[in-house]
Structures
1.
Amino acid sequence: MKDAETASIVYRKSQIMKAVQLVAHGAPGKFELRDVPDPQPGPGEAVVQVHACGLNHLDLWLEEAGLPISIKLPRTPGGEIAGTIAGIDAGVSDWKIGDRVAVQSNLFCGECEFCQRGEDSMCLRGEILGVQRDGGFAEKVLVPARALVCLPEGVDFDTSAALTLAGSTAMHMLTNRAHVNPGDWVLAIGGASGVGSAAIQIAKQLGARVISTGSTEAKRALARNLGAEFVVDANDPQWPAEIRKITNKHGVDVIVEHVGGDVLGKCFDCLARGGTIVTCGATAGKDVPLNLWPFFVKQHRLIGSYGRNRVDLDTTLQWAAAGKLKPVIDSIFPLDQTAAAFAKLRSRNFLGKVLVRP
Ligand SMILES: [Zn+2]
């Protein structure tokens, strides 16, 4: 009896892991580092040992209950995951224990009409990892094996966790939703942000002339270092006029926008005839007035973009491996300091990505 009790304690010990759980919404919300049961892979699933996980504005929305989805707490946030496979369903043949992977955080069913044509970002049964399911601010995370993407040799876990979400979002915007021709003027809003810093580099690689915006000299300097030819002061209300001047009144052909609100409204003021605004976020406001007269006279396009497809994630990682896309990492926190990482993101006082390394 005594031996059995000892054995059961040993068994339980190997069956727990550390996970950060959001236990109450707020700004800041309340987080706890807890022992939780080790996840076990079910049919078609894999367990990933998390080596790094990036923070995104989405995490702040989850923390503040600012998403239009009801979330059951406690919840482990974190969607930008890089790690190694620690467990896999025996029925999954294309992966093995120890494989280095990134995870497509737009979980998709793999079966609906959109998934069948590779548009998993439009999945009818999509879920967001770290929002509707427990995510990567934990030692391990359970994911469907179809969401795994191979981490190329030469791309370390921190680089992956700093690029896979924002970088592949920008990749999806510039190579799937909108199209950039060599010589086009491209405006990347917020060049020091995750999406903006990747958009500058991707547009440059596609042969565009890139302009960006930044609210501080440090942010503008970063945007210039990443390849922006001109960077305007986002605090100057006349920045669209400045951009018209830079482009010799032509305006910009493509704008990568991820802020919404007044910023999106201003983008129309410096958009070339026939130009495209592609947008993927609304942190500065969801409701934007649109004057239809110049919109159709100048034959503008406004295109929505959501997340990424697996192919965008793959391309992003391949570009990182080839040195064409570099991450900008501001700071890395250990798992027990995840709340401090959230505070850093909320402070807006950072350049590039904030990561947690469990
Ligand atoms: Zn689907």
2.
Amino acid sequence: MPILVENMQRLGTETAFEVLARAAELERQGRDIINLGIGQPDFKTPPHIVEAAIKALRDGHHGYTPSQGILPLREAVAADLDRRHDASVDPDTIMIMPGGKPTMFFSILMFGKPGTEILYPDPGFPIYRSMIEYSGATPVAIELREENDFSFNAAELLEQITPRTRLIILNTPGNPTGGVVAENEIRTLVEGILANPDVMLLSDEIYSQMLYDGKRHSSLLKYPEIRDQLIVLDGWSKTYAMTGWRLGFSVWPASLVESINRLAVNCHSCVNAAAQYAGIAALEGPQDSVIEMVQAFDERRRIIVQLLNQLPGFHCVKPGGAFYAFPNITGTGFTETDLQNMILDEAGVATVAGTSFGPFGKGFIRFSYANSVENIRIAVERIGEFLINARH
Ligand SMILES: Cc1ncc(COP(=O)(O)O)c(C=O)c1O
């Protein structure tokens, strides 16, 4: 029998992938499933980005690159951050990563160990808690509440800091709620972080370009005074519909660049070379496809929120960003897990139970609206029929 180390037993997972597998199994059995479970754009990567990768392969970019990423890509990222956030970032503090996830994986490994505490959003992306537990650190939930539109109160958050706190994880716009943290809360948080110089901040800004109703993104990079305590995670997966390319980046304090490079060398050596050239084309090329995709998400957001609010027992706040709706389903009388399973099996609609994103997701279900308006309408109609039949 293989004898696994103890940490492996504490490693969690992402339930969305399990729902996806179950949905695929039902499809194999001939069922018609509408997938509102998976967190990825239903758009294709824009053609000019695909062409840049093909050209890179034809031009012979087949070997290793520097572990930190090729300089022209890091320069393009710095220019993009300047354009989007009015933030000056040294390309030497930018790390090109195989997606967004490795940045959370590595930063939690860097700061988490038994006896330390890491604060993370709940409901939140499940990998945060999974990796905190793997590291042996104690996970401390930052509760995101429906009545706050799933933002947080920075003063309350700062009170959760103890001498054992090493890292605080933030995610705005957020998965699974679509919640957006307002600028004034970010400012309060920055002041509090400055007063706690041993506490690091990991700001997951992967949905930073997906904002609605005129909301603007409050990047932590706008506060140069906390750069020594700040790691920012972002990437191409969502913005450019490139989840399968595995391309992301992070910005690090200068003092940690050597450590993060070492972790990268030990883990993946470098990111796929052709994907890095594609990343340059994405940032430097036309941005029309990003604008069009966000407009499409905005239309679907309005429709799904309106439809979900008409379902008996559902209540859905309007999400300000990302591409998720997170309705409260306590009025249906079902638990979130039962409802997730029943609407998949009986209505043919894949969603994800709120508790997959932490205990404070109890009573909620996540809908990803990265699907067509037509499918969204059919899906909600089917759920409505299921709920009416379930009452009889
Ligand atoms: C909040 C958040 N951060 C990071 C990621 C991971 O992105 P990637 O696919 O680039 O690793 C996701 C993906 O769903 C996410 O929702």
